[in-house]
Design brief:
The complex is a heterodimer of chains A (about 270) and B (about 260).
Chain A lengths: L1 H19 L1 H29 L7 H22 L5 H7 L2 H6 L4 H8 L6 H17 L6 H27 L8 H15 L8 H10 L7 H8 L15 H21 L7
Chain B lengths: L2 H15 L2 H29 L7 H18 L7 H7 L2 H6 L4 H31 L10 H25 L1 H4 L3 H13 L12 H10 L2 H4 L1 H7 L4 H33 L6
Helix pairs in contact in B: 1-6, 2-3, 2-6, 3-6, 3-12, 4-7, 6-7, 7-12, 7-13, 12-13
Classes of the chains: A mainly alpha (about 270), B mainly alpha (about 260).
Chain lengths: ~270, ~260
Amino acid sequence: MASARVYAHVVRAQIRSQAQYRASFLIDLFGSMAVNALDIATVFVLFSVTGGLGGFGGGPVLLMAALSAASFSLADMAVGTADRLREYVRSGQFDSLLLRPLSTLAQLVAVNFAFRRVGRVVQGLVLYVVALAVAGVHWTLGAAVLAVVAPLVGGVFFGSLFVAGATVAFWWIESGEVANAFTYGGRDFTSYPVTMFGGWFRDLFAIALGFAFVAYLPALALLDRPDPLGLPDWLRWCSPVVALVAACLAALFWRVGVRNYRSTGS
Amino acid sequence: MSRAPLALLAAGFRRYSTYRQATFAGIFTNSVFGFLRCYLLLSVAEEAGSVAGYSGSQLVTYVWLGQGMLATVNSWTPLDLAERVRTGDVVADLLRPIDPLWTYLWTDLGRACFAVLTRLAVPLGVGAFAFGLYVPDDPLVYPVLLLSLVLAVVTGFACRYLIGLTAFWLLDIRGLNMVWVFFSGFASGLYFPLAVLPEWLSTLLWVATPFPVLMQSSIDIAVERGGLGHGLLVLAGQAAWALLLLWACRVVQRRGVRRLVVQGG
C-alpha cells in the first residue's frame, strides 16, 4: 500500500512535468491523435474498395478496429515506455532501479509514464463506445460484461507484449525494431478481421501468438456470430484467460531478464 | 575535391554496415509488416479483382518494395543536423571546406547504398519467395527504377535536411517532425496505394507535394503502371522535386546560418 502511494506520487510528478511545456505537450497530444486517426482511416480506405473486409460488413469491422485501438492505446499509455529500458541497460542506469526497494518494472513504467498519450486513449474509447452502439451488438448479461472488460483485457495483452519486447534489451540492446513487429504489427493485425489473413502467418499471429483474442474473437462474441474459420464458440469468451497467461509469461520473462542484467561497471 | 564525395559515401556505408543487429532487427520487422500488408491487400483484391487497378502480383511488389524503400529512404529517422544546430556543434560543420549540405547528402547516400543491399534486398526476396513479385515486361524498367530509387533517396534526404534546418529558428523540431512523419507516411503511399484515394486528393498530392516521390513513384515504375512512357514522366517529376528541394536547402541554409547564435559556455 505504501509503495502504491510512491508510484502515484511519481506518476503525478511526471504528469506535472510534462504539462509544464504546454505547447510541446499539446503538439504531442494532437500529433499522436492524428496518427491514431490515420490508422483507423486506413482500415476504412481498404474497406471502401469493396464495401467489406474479409466477409464482414461495416459494423463488425468498426467494432474490431475500435476495440484494437482502445486496447493498444491503453497499453501504450500505461507501459508503452517500457522500451526505454534499452537506454537504462546501455548506460547502466538500471542499477539505480535495482537499489530501491520497489519493483524494477513498476519503477521503470512509473518514471516514464506517458501522460501525453492520454488523447489516444480517450479517442480509442470514444470510438469503441460508438462502435458498440452502431455495430448491432447482441446484448445479454455476458455480452455487457465482455463489452466492459474487453478493452482492459486487450490492454493487458498488449501491455504484456510491450514488457516482453522491452525485456529482450537485457540480452540484445538494439532489439527495438523486433519488438515493434509484435506491438505495432500486432495492433495492425488486430485492427482487421482475422479472415483476411492466410496460411501459416494467420495461424502464427491469430492463434499461436494469441492476437485473435484481442479484438476479433471478443467482437464475434459481442455480435453473437460464429467464427467463419471454425474455431469453437466458447473460445470467443476466453480473452481474459489468454491475457492473464500473457501477463504471467511477460512477468516471468522480466524476472529472468533482470537476473541476467550485467551492469556497465562505470 | 572529387575524392571527398566518394570518401563520404564510403564512410556512410561503413558506418551503417557496423550496426548489424539493428539491420537484422529492421529486416525482421519490415518482413512481418510485409506479410501483414500483403495479406490485407490481396484479400481485398480477391474480392474486388484489383485494388485501384493494381493486380495481385503488382500489389505484392507494392507492399514489399514499399517496406524496403521505407528503410532505404529512411524518412522516419531525422538527421542529427537539428541536434547539432541546437547544441552549436554545427559550427564545426560550417568551418569545413565542404558545405554541410553535401557532406550530409553523400553520407546519407552511403547509408542508402547499404540499406539497398540489406533492408531492401532481403524483404524483396522474402516477398518474391512467399508471394511472387511482379516481373516487368520491358527490361528498360530496371535502369529507370534504379534512377528512381536514387532520386527518392535524394528527395527524402532534402526533406529531412530542410526540417533539420528549421532548428535554426525553432530549436526544438519535434512538432514539425511529427507532422512530417504523418504526411510522409500516408501521402507517400506507405499505408495504401495513392490511387485508392479520391481523385482530387491523389492528384493534389502528386502535383503539389513531394511525398509520392518518396515511394509511390518508384513502385509505379516497378509495376509498369501506365507503361514506360508514364514511368519516364514520373521519373522527371522526381528529378524536378529533388532539384527543387536541394535548391531550397541551399537557400534556407544560407538564411539560417545568418541567424545562428552559438551559446557560450
